[in-house]
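To close the section, here is one more complete example, presented without commentary so you can practise reading it yourself. The ligand is coenzyme A.
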Amino acid sequence: MTLSAEDPFDDFVLLTPRLIIIPTPIAVSLASYRALYSDLHANVAFCEMAFGHHLPAERWSDSKTLEVIQQRDIGRCWKPRGMGDFAVGRRMPSTPGSDPRVQDDRSELIILRGQDLVRLAGPDNVYFENIEWVGYAGVRDATTTSMPAREPGDPALPSWREMVELRYGFSPQVWGTGVGQEAAKAVMQWAVGERGVLRFIAETERENERSGRVLKKLGFVSSATDYWKEPIVCKAQETILGATA
Ligand SMILES: CC(C)(COP(=O)(O)OP(=O)(O)OC[C@H]1O[C@@H](n2cnc3c(N)ncnc32)[C@H](O)[C@@H]1OP(=O)(O)O)[C@@H](O)C(=O)NCCC(=O)NCCS
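Output:
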């Protein structure tokens, strides 16, 4: 489970009342999660909603999925900034190896590490392979990942900790159950508490009303900024520390 010594990544998972949220540097090794990630990106309706014209639906092989997660998320997000996407699955009370103390406290965000994590994961993460995956949620430094290169004359940007992009995508089977909001909130709380994030930004396709509602519930407000230089297609949104509490 542990990455190479150079990686600035300390193994942990997040638990919310209904969800187990696993950083992709761990989840990438789970075939069951890669299958869910591949399915989402092969789903035309999902891709149109999430990415508009940027990323058409495509069926990736397992090796391509592995490569995409390793390059786009672990390589570009987790390694430089210690944050990125998380795999989101249903938290099952009956998961073998679960710490009873953890199962008792389902009211708040729990960050599980060390022996508690080893007990939950089982040998070689065997218990994680059986999780029912429902989607992904993540935070990343937008300035070095999704934003177009800055040009002469562009206004100066705040520090990257004020430019952290929230992103998420869930299987249509779980839409309308609140897991999107629950997972996004957990990842944001983790990013503020554990990585010192000061402000989140997000963009949605204008037609993506569901995502707009999720962002609103998380405290995002429409922004006049044009970080992604796509004012016609997308709505920029931002929230500041404390707005999500
Ligand atoms: C965007 C996306 C995550 C929103 O999904 P969602 O199901 O609407 O969002 P949530 O999981 O937070 O669920 C919220 C809904 O569940 C309902 N709900 C039911 N039980 C709930 C519970 N226990 N807690 C909270 N909400 C609950 C809420 O009332 C709300 O419905 P409403 O918006 O009609 O009022 C999902 O549509 C998606 O993955 N889309 C494709 C990818 C995408 O667009 N990503 C965003 C790119 S910007």
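Once you have examined the tokens, check your reading against these statements. The beta strands are 13-15, 19-23, 85-90, 110-112, 133-141, 164-170, 199-205, 221-222, 234-240. The radius of gyration is 17 Å.
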